[in-house]
């Protein structure tokens, strides 16, 4: 069985770090926003349309449209091959494992009732 480091080594050269909180960064999902806005369009619309949506998220890496990480996530979700989905799920899970291991302990506390982890899609 491969180690977490071995499963994630191929991702190290293309994962895009999450933007630090500041003006021009969505207060919820940490993507870039236009000047004068505190949330991106998707987060604003989710808050407007849905009750109980996340007001804070902890992204692992930005998934740039057309980029390798976006391709990996899309393939994991949409591949017709169960074997490919299983392999990608293991590798993506290992990335999450490494991120959780490196994250402040305040992010790894017991979740509130009804909390869940998801892979985002835009």
Quick description:
The protein folds into 2 domains: 1-17 and 62-102, no CATH class; 19-59, no CATH class. Helices cover 38% and strands 0% of the residues.
Q: Could you please describe the fold and organization of this structure?
A:
38% of the residues lie in helices and 0% in strands. The protein has 122 residues and is mainly alpha-helical. The protein has two domains: 1-17 and 62-102, no CATH class; 19-59, no CATH class. The radius of gyration is 16 Å and the shape is globular.
Rounded Rg:
16 Å
Global shape: globular
Would you report the number of β strands? 0
Summed up, the helix count is: 4
Average pLDDT, to the nearest integer? 82
Residue stretches low in confidence (pLDDT < 50, at least 5 long) are none
Content-based structural category = mainly alpha
Can you tell me the number of structural domains? 2
Strand content: under 5%
User: How widely separated are the two ends?
Assistant: 33 Å
Secondary-structure element series? HHHH
Q: Could you give a short account of the major beta sheet? A: none
* Percent range of helical residues: 25-40%
């Amino acid at each position: 069985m491969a180690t977490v480091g071995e499963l994630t080594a191929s991702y190290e050269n293309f994962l895009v770090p999450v933007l630090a909180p500041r003006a021009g960064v969505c207060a919820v999902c940490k993507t870039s926003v236009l000047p004068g806005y505190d949330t991106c369009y998707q987060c604003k619309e989710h808050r407007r349309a849905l009750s109980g949506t996340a007001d804070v998220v902890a992204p692992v890496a930005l998934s740039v449209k057309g980029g390798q990480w976006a391709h990996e996530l899309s393939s994991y979700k949409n591949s017709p091959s169960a074997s490919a989905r299983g392999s990608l799920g293991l590798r993506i899970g290992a990335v999450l494992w490494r991120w959780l291991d490196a994250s402040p302990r305040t992010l790894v506390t017991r979740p509130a009732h009804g909390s869940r982890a998801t892979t985002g899609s835009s």
